[in-house]
Automatic annotation (TrEMBL):
It comes from Herpetotheres cachinnans (Laughing falcon). Belongs to the UTP23/FCF1 family. UTP23 subfamily. Involved in rRNA-processing and ribosome biogenesis. It holds the Pfam family Fcf1. InterPro entries: Fcf1/UTP23, PIN-like_dom_sf, UTP23_sensor. Residues 116-129 have a biased composition (Basic and acidic residues). The lineage of its organism: Eukaryota, Metazoa, Chordata, Craniata, Vertebrata. The gene is Utp23. This is UTP23 protein. Residues 162-172 have a biased composition (Basic residues). Gene3D superfamilies: 5'-nuclease. It is found in: Nucleus, Nucleolus.
Amino acid sequence: RCVLKELESLGKALYGAKLIAQRFQVRKCSHHKDPVSGSACLLSMIEEGNPHHFFIATQDQDLANKVKKKAGVPLLFIIQNTMVLDKPSPKSLVFVQKLQTNQLVPEHQKQSIVQLKEKEGLAKQEGEKRKKRKRAGGPNPLSCLKKKKKKTQEGQEPSAEKKKRRKRKRNRVKAEGVQSVQKNEEE
C-alpha cells in the first residue's frame, strides 16, 4: 500500500507504473495509517528473515544494495525488456551452507552421539593417532607377463647383415659460403 501511495503522490508521470502495480495482490504492511516511502516499506517486510519468501523487484540501486545485505531475499531487475534474477548474494550463500550442515544431523542427535562415544571409549583422544598398517604386497603383475617373441619369416633368424640402418645425411656448407661469411666478419 505504501508503494501505491507513493506512486499516486508522484503524479501523472508514473500513472502507467501505478496501473501495473494495482494489478498485483496488495500485501498489508504495518504502515497503514502513516505511509512511508516504497523502499522503506519493502525493507520492513523482509526485515525478519523474509518469512513470506518475497522477491524484491526494483531498479533502485540503493534498495538493491540494501536487499543484497540480507540473506535469503531474491532480487529481480529489468534489462532491455527482460526480467533478470540476480545471482545470490554472498550472505545468502553462507546462510544456505549453515542451514545445510545443521540439517544433516540435528543438534540433539549430535550431543547423544558424543555421549555414546564417550561411554564406549571411542572418543578421539588428543595426541593419539592411529598408524596405518602396511599390507604385504605381491609382485608387480606386469613383471609376471610372458615375454613376446618376435615373428620371423619361415623360421629364419634375421642376421645382422640384412638389417637396414638409417643413415644420417649431413648438410655440408659449401666453401664459397664460408669464405663470404669470413669476409663479412672481417669488415
